């Protein structure tokens, strides 16, 4: 879609239907690239169009200030409230989701354990013939996973399928820190005689590609450790990111996966799981 079409959409609608606009643009384009272009056009042409019906928290915060408030005071208040909102949202999700996982724990042969890439996958639709629970939790790091690893043990699984690490890297933790957490996590399952399938930490797209060298290093260390320990390892990147970068074909935000990605992933994952559950 050309700029003139995006500008027409901004001029014709007080509130954009961002979902519909993204579908028209095509799913091989980054959603963030679209938002950045819309925001630039809106600013350049001094338009008041809302980019979607969603009202971000910052709008309500800015409305509290008037023209006499100094910019430095506004910036400080925005920074404080943004931190509170982000930390609160992340921790409340962690508290509530892990609490649910501790109190609702049916026995299952398979546990899918990880972060949002695991949590948001349609595993129940993919593994129709396997008793399975999803223990993914959006935003979680390997440190958080260590704290809630009991939620994998309480369902008495035969197999745990594990992917993690990208949130740690995004938050600035080094590869050695993540690697040690991996070892500690894997040891818990080994000590409980649970079979393990470790999956590679996924590469990310262009917006986050500065992380990809660390992703490669982490995967090399984990793959080598799994080989030494006799733990199964699946390189999902060979399917989703053969060029060491996640394509917009598989993601609209350079991180999370769409249905096409989960379909490609499940084709290589299902045979591995079937073999390990025998």
In CATH, the homologous superfamily of the largest domain goes by the name SGNH hydrolase
Order of helices and strands: HHHHHEHHEHHEHHEHEHH
Coarse shape: globular
Largest sheet: 5 strands, parallel
CATH structural architecture of the largest domain: 3-Layer(aba) Sandwich
Top CATH class of the largest domain: Alpha Beta
- Distance linking N and C termini: 50 Å
**Helical percent range?**
40-55%
Number of distinct beta strands: 5
For the residues shown, what is the average pLDDT?
Answer: 93
Q: Write down the CATH topology of the largest domain.
A: Rossmann fold
State the low-pLDDT regions, or none.
none
Query: In order across it, which strands form the biggest sheet?
Result: 2-1-3-4-5
Strand-pairing-aware structural class: alpha/beta
From the alpha-carbon coordinates, what is the Rg to the nearest angstrom?
Answer: 22 Å
> DSSP helix count?
14
Structural domain count: 3
The oligomeric state of the chains shown is single chain
Q: How much beta, percentage-wise?
A: 5-15%
Pfam families: Lipase_GDSL_2
Domain SGNH hydrolase-type esterase: 113-264
Protein name: Lysophospholipase
GO molecular function: phosphatidylcholine lysophospholipase activity
């Amino acid at each position: 879609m050309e700029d003139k079409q995006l500008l027409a959409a901004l001029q014709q609608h007080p509130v954009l239907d961002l979902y519909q606009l993204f579908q028209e643009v095509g799913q091989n384009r980054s959603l963030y690239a679209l938002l950045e272009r819309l925001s630039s056009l809106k600013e350049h042409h001094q338009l008041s169009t809302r980019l979607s019906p969603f009202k971000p928290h910052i709008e309500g915060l800015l409305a509290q200030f008037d023209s006499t408030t100094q910019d430095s005071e506004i910036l400080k208040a925005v920074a404080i409230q943004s931190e509170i909102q982000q930390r609160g949202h992340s921790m409340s999700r962690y508290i509530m989701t892990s609490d649910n996982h501790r109190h609702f724990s049916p026995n299952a042969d398979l546990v899918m354990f990880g972060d949002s890439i695991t949590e948001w996958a349609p595993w129940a639709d993919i593994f129709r013939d396997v008793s399975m629970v999803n223990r993914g939790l959006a935003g979680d790091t390997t440190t958080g996973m260590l704290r809630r690893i009991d939620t994998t043990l309480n369902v008495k699984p035969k197999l745990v399928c594990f992917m993690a690490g990208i949130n740690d890297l995004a938050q600035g933790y080094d590869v050695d820190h993540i690697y040690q957490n991996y070892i500690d996590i894997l040891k818990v399952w080994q000590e409980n005689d649970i079979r393990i399938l470790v999956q590679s930490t996924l590469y990310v797209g262009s917006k986050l590609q500065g992380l990809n060298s660390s992703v490669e290093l982490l995967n090399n260390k984990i793959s080598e450790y799994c080989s030494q320990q006799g733990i199964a390892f699946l390189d999902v990147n060979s399917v989703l990111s053969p060029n060491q970068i996640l394509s917009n074909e598989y993601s609209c935000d350079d991180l999370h996966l769409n249905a096409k990605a989960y379909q490609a992933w499940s084709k290589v994952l299902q045979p591995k799981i079937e073999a390990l559950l025998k």
